[in-house]
Amino acid sequence: MIIIIDEASAKLASFYYHDEIFKPQWKRAADMSSASDELHDEFQGKLYDEQQYELQEKLQEKLPDELREKLYVALPADESINDFQKTTIQESADNTAKANTGNLRIPKAPANYIWIVSNRQQKQIADSLGIASVGEPQCGTRYAVESLAELDIEYLDRVRRRYNHIPWDIGETDRCLIRELSLSDLPALYELYDKPGMTDFVEPLYDYETELEYQKAYIENMYGFYEYGMWLVFSRETGKLIGRAGLEHDELGYMIAPELWNQGYATEVCRFIIDYARENTDFEELYCRIDERNEASVRLAKKLGFTNSGHMDDDIHASIYRKNIKNIKNNEKH
Questions:
Q1: Distance of alpha carbon 161 from alpha carbon 223, whole angstroms
Q2: CA neighbours within 13 Å on the CB side: how many for 183?
Q3: CATH 3.40.630.30 residue ranges for the chain
Q4: CATH class in words for 169-324
Q5: CA end-to-end span of the chain, whole Å?
Q6: What would the pLDDT profile of 4-30 be if each residue is shown by its tens digit?
Q7: CB atoms inside a 10 Å sphere around CB 55
Q8: Number of other CB atoms surrounding residue 116 within 10 Å
Q9: Which end of the chain is more exposed for a tag (fewer CB within 10 A), N or C?
Q10: What is the pTM of this model?
Q11: By CB neighbour count within 10 A (0-12 exposed, 13-18 middle, 19+ buried), where does 72 fall?
């Protein structure tokens, strides 16, 4: 991730000014061409490829003189060259795959840029260049913070990913990676739903074109607005899609591939999601709807501390199980 930031904003952003996690590698936007002497040779090739050079030229053209003298570009101080190149190449491949499946657009600017803007003029320049931006409310950015001192690296990276339609990594368990769905995941999702028993108690997917449009809207509105939703579950060992799990507001949902049933995967993933909801949402409790014929899900819900509320969802013939997630001591084993 490459951060564009001016001197005034840098002094207010704790991630840079106080914690010194970032150090400016390009001293000033006005001196971009001369900065190459200060960078590692291995890094120069990636930094000054055709696309990034074109971005620098456009940035130079759009910046007023007073801003050009104050603008910095920063890299993580502890981010190795190889890690940077690997991340950039992978994100480029991900964006290409998404474009090929109809997912909006490939950014005009490199997907690894984000601009911490300090006024509307900078925000407008960022928009014209296709660069993700974040700032205080008066700057007019879609992603706003009350104070730049609230910024941290994770938030900046998530804004950058959301802007460039790169799915967020939600977290990891011992055996699983949980992340948002992207449209390039749809073929694997259909394979998952086609496995025996997967749709015995859940609705199947729509036809491909309908599902594609549904997921486009879901990514934009559910992930984009609420920052949670139904996520995908991948095996950390194989990288393969093995399930879905997540939050539909305060409802917990989960499904695991049948070849992995009775191996503790659903328990592992659901415990992660319950912890996630406790730490990242305002929900006092979670609920799940379970068909009583689904004995495995009933056992799992009880194991996770859910109890049958005595209420039914008659539309899908399901009992409603509930669990309080706030009044739990941090050291409680759940």
A1: 12
A2: 25
A3: 169-324
A4: alpha beta
A5: 37
A6: 887 777 777 776 655 455 554 444 444
A7: 17
A8: 29
A9: C
A10: 0.72
A11: buried
